[in-house]
Write a structure and sequence with these properties.
Strand order of the largest sheet: 3-5-6-7-10-14-15-16-17-18-19-21-22-24-25-26
Distance between the termini: 38 Å
Number of helices: 5
Largest sheet: 16 strands, antiparallel, barrel
Strand content: over 45%
Shape: globular
Number of strands: 26
Helix content: 10-25%
């Protein structure tokens, strides 16, 4: 089996290389780069080690509402329309990303499967500073094989789906508001900063509201990593009307739900999968976030998010302890409380949703960058409150996840990545399984905005055939990540 894996990797790496050579021979180096890079006349790598991972400058750019004070237009969007014209302004406000697999190979005791598949996601972005203190960001998403859920059918292939993507929000710099209330302020490129030269300074506070991803400001950002989440797999047995989960996605376990047997809601009875990214670490949820950077060292953050039938509130802080040339180091801490955000299983029938539960989430993360190395990790603890007494002996109400990732830019065209995920699961005792996964990836960039990748994930624990978390030994993916 191992030899077969190696052969398959070699064949598809060769195929990807051949396609790249052909494209390189026929296409001139790409001049089109995503929206913010075009607006500020920068390369993608000004903000990214490689997309989507942010570098130190990219973190500051996001934190400031996608604005560069020294390069912002005092008259914002109107100035761009006057100077650049409507056509260029529109083009510079749009971006497109095509991402997903081209080939998948999975190995388990029950079956070994190889299949070709198209990229699973096409994202369309609209991103633009409207004024020096206000920016808009929206993502639309098309999936050729979207996954849907219903009570009667379970998970099923929803076919072609198009709609709002992970994020859609505005970001407003509220510094001028504090200045109007009497706080000392400074002007930088039309933006208002609280404080004085040579003394205390505060960037913000920034309000980010809409469908948001607050954890971009964390030392380990859920949406900003080099290894993509894999897809949920489900199947329907012959003669059955309802499908069952066959294989759970491979995700950073630190940010996952971590509990077996929970539900999102009562009406549909949709399960909250153990690998769903939840609470502060969601990929995107309706809510509002307030954050500010103090003295370029401490970033403070508070906010709230809607989740399932409830909502959660959070407070987080990032400490940028070291920033010396090519060496940076940050540590983040999080406290997150969810009010009625999940449902317990019904004690009389665990396959049906019961009462609502509160969730406490807390944890730490760290990130160190040195030259071409980027290492980041997080450990997150979760605890459920409000469990019925009848479940005390059959349900574990605590869980922990650990994720550590390292990226190394070997060459401007080659990024190597590895990630270790450890899950100490909670939930129903007769279902729960702990998990340990090691993933390795090579990502080749013929141009800054086009990448082909080969990734191999290995289950480090014994195979459990009836567990969707551990019913596999090895999963290999070949895919593309293309930004326009």
């Amino acid at each position: 089996m191992l030899r077969r894996s190696i052969v398959v990797v070699a064949l598809f790496a060769t195929a990807a290389g051949f396609v790249t050579v052909v494209l390189y021979a026929q296409v001139q180096p790409a001049a089109a780069v995503p929206a913010f890079a075009r607006q500020y006349d920068l390369q993608c790598n000004a903000c990214h080690t490689r997309p989507p991972r942010l570098n130190r400058f990219g973190e500051q750019f996001h934190m400031m509402g996608f604005q560069i004070p020294s390069a912002s237009r005092p008259d914002g969007l109107l100035g761009s329309l006057k100077e650049d014209g409507p056509a260029k302004t529109l083009i510079d406000s749009l971006a497109l990303r095509v991402v997903g697999g081209l080939f998948e190979y999975s190995e388990s005791p029950r079956e070994t499967e190889s299949k070709l598949e198209p990229p699973h996601e096409i994202e369309f972005f609209i991103a633009r500073p409207i004024m020096p203190s206000l920016s808009l960001y929206a993502e639309l998403e098309y999936q050729p094989n979207g996954i849907a859920f219903s009570r009667d059918r379970g998970f099923f292939d929803g076919g072609h789906t198009f709609g709002l993507g992970k994020e859609a929000f505005f970001m407003w710099n509220m510094g001028a508001l504090l200045g109007a209330a009497g706080a000392p302020t400074m002007e930088m490129g039309g933006q208002t900063m609280v404080g004085r030269h040579g003394g205390f300074t505060m960037h913000g506070p920034m309000l980010m509201a809409g469908k948001i991803d607050p954890n971009t400001n964390f030392s380990y950002a859920t949406n900003r990593q080099m290894l993509l989440d894999t897809e949920l797999e489900f199947e329907r047995e012959p003669g059955e009307d309802r499908s069952e989960v066959h294989r759970l996605p491979i995700v950073p376990y630190a940010f996952a739900s971590k509990f077996f047997g929970l539900f999102k809601n009562r009406d549909e009875g949709e399960p909250q999968l153990v690998t769903d990214q939840v609470m502060y670490n969601t990929a995107g949820a309706p809510g509002a976030d307030f954050h500010a950077m103090f003295n370029d060292v401490v970033l403070g953050q508070i906010g709230f998010l809607r989740e399932n039938e409830g909502f959660n509130t959070y407070a987080a802080a990032r400490f940028d302890l070291l920033d010396r040339g090519e060496l940076t180091f940050s540590v983040s801490a999080l406290v997150n409380w969810g009010f009625g955000v999940v449902r317990a299983p019904d004690p009389a029938d665990p396959n049906q949703p019961g009462g609502r539960l509160d969730r406490l989430r807390y944890g730490i993360a760290a990130n160190v960058r040195w030259k071409q190395f980027d290492v980041y990790g997080a450990v997150i603890w979760d605890r459920l409150y409000g469990l019925p007494g009848e479940l005390r002996g059959t349900f574990v109400g605590t869980a922990t996840g650990l994720t550590i990732q390292a990226d190394y830019l070997v060459h401007e065209k080659l990024m190597l990545s590895s990630r270790f995920d450890q899950l100490w699961a909670g939930g129903l005792k007769d279902e729960k399984q702990d998990g340990s996964v090691l993933s390795l990836q090579a990502k080749f960039y013929p141009w800054q905005n086009i990448a082909f990748f080969v990734r191999d994930s290995v289950n480090l624990r014994s195979v459990v055939e009836d567990s969707p978390l551990r019913n596999w030994r090895n999963q290999l993916f070949v895919g593309i990540d293309w930004d326009f």
